[in-house]
Amino acid sequence: MGKKKEDMIQLNNPSYYNNRELSWLAFNERVLQEALDPRNPLLEKLKFLAIFSSNLDEFFMVRVAGLQDQVKVGFNKPENKAGMTPKQQLHEIALKNHQLVNLQYDTLRKILYPKLQREHVHFLKVRELSDSQQEALEVYFDEHIFPVLTPMAIDAYRPFPMLLNKSINLAVVLEDTAKEADSEQRTRTAIVQLPAMLERFVQLPENGGLRKLLMLEDVIGFFIGKLFHGYEVKSTTVFRITRNADMTIHEEGARDLLKEIEEELRKRKWGAAVRLEVQKDGLDPVILDYLMDELEVHPKDVYEIDGFLDLTVFFGFYKKMAPIWEHLVYEGKISQLPVGMENGKAIFAKIADEDVFLHHPYESFEPVVEFISEAADDPDVLAIKQTLYRVSGDSPVINALKRAAENGKQVTVLVELKARFDEENNVHWAKELEKAGCHVIYGMTHLKTHSKITLVVRKKQGRIERFVHLGTGNYNDQTAKIYTDMSLFTSKKEIGIDATNFFNYLSGYTEKPEFHYLSVAPFSIRKDILHLIDSEIRYEKKYGNGHIVAKMNSLTDKIIIMKLYEASRAGVKIDLIVRGICCLRPGIPEVSDNIRVRSIVGRLLEHSRVYYFHQNGKEKTFLSSADMMTRNLNNRIEILFPILDKRVKGQVWDILELGLRDNVKAREQDEEGNYGYVRRMEGQAVIDSQMELFERAYQVAEDEE
Q1: Helix (H), strand (E) at residue 539
Q2: Domain 520-703, what architecture?
């Protein structure tokens, strides 16, 4: 007797999965689509070009660099989901990414430049200027640019220089006019690096409101001969290097992790080159071959750019022009203070009465800052304990913690020194906190502490009270304005005890504690999620009402994906809102027919993690610092926590349900792994979930007045 068809389906079949890196590129493509969306104002479109470039820099510095390292050491084992070897992944990444970069620059040249010109802004080349304008520019060059430049000759005594990661450089080919030797001996090469302290945009004097902008590298290239007297400039090639910026931290042998990380930060600037970008205009093919050879860059990692390099420069352009061009940026939205937590009202009294839920940035992050600030000054507060992963440059949270220590409170702060690309910032804050008298710990060996939790211990009328803040996002007052995240304040006794045990585990020597409500990775989050999915399968088989809704940044963990496939095959309805990487493929017949995957990419960065299980009407809702990614579940200290208050559960469900109805900024993934905008049916209401949530927050605030 043959096997049943359902038994023959292998859920680990590579064709059922999206490759992690290609799925990330699909996310960055959705970011790029925002620069093409006619509903977005012009300056916002330019900003999305900058975000696309910034994302790509980090992708090359970490993900592509890691794959290249695997190839170099001969590692050719396929990854365990889509089954692609490192070489295959690099090949597919290059194919897709060259397409996306070409689209990015086509968007700038063909769509956004004409719009800028209608706003009287013109990007010009020096050669397009009149003689009088060139003369005026030469004076500016001599006085403001020339003194800062450093030509670096390349010869037997001066080898190819170590160029900074992400720096823009000019490779200059020169001919010695004084020598009559053959051309090879007369030819010289030099490098000139763009000074980082100078503005990339050089602006000509305004004429009737007309802004004429030149790129700094074009100005330097035009007058480059002034640096090389006695030589004739034969070519000038503008290029940019991206280097491997991943850090190798030897945690076991490190006597002082802070010093170890400081040393690695110094090395990061000089990692192996992983990408070479060259400007097509003026490109010298001989120099390109020379750079590829010197930097050991593969041809597929060379990007010939039809425009100026590094569009992250538009971040600065946006900041400068937004106050002037208010009609070309998003309409301002103001975060609302939640009901009952307006300025002047005692925050601890409010939390003692009931759990308080906040949805940022629709609701202000200020109560989170106020919670820590009030604890710092409250004479009844005995101790504050907090985890910090990423904070802002001038952090009010840090200032409050320092003040608390100076006020004699016991302050314990876990500062995660290994937060990627925030290591330097966190080293600085760790030192500052220690100077103020805080007890600072740096995390745990081989694990990143990514959880977001604060515990305040207070003594009131002779008894101990515990107040806890738990969140899905960082304690960063700046990103809280543009990231969507969720916060929960609670004074529930069991969660307070859980928080105490959690911090004692981080700071001391103790076995992993048992928790009343918290689930902590790397120990139990995956196990608990799998258990919840299994119970949903049982409810589906018994009652036919299984439903799972999960919102996260990324979904990569194969064990959880396979369990979701199993649930889908059992009939459980599964709705996933995954902003970024999603290795799960929905809609595959007899595998994932009951799974729908959507991604919302818009004005705000979707960042909250929410996990909902119907449980035959006994709904269970959880918030978490963790995405369902293998790295989060295996290699990080993360927290998953339940929403126990029925009223708050309803608030969270309303947010999830709205995200599932978004038909403006939502894209859905098909069974091939491709994304397309959600189709809006004729007559259907227009739903932009982010804007709707702002309107709801405004309405609640108005109703309270």
Answers
A1: helix 525-543
A2: 2-Layer Sandwich (3.30)
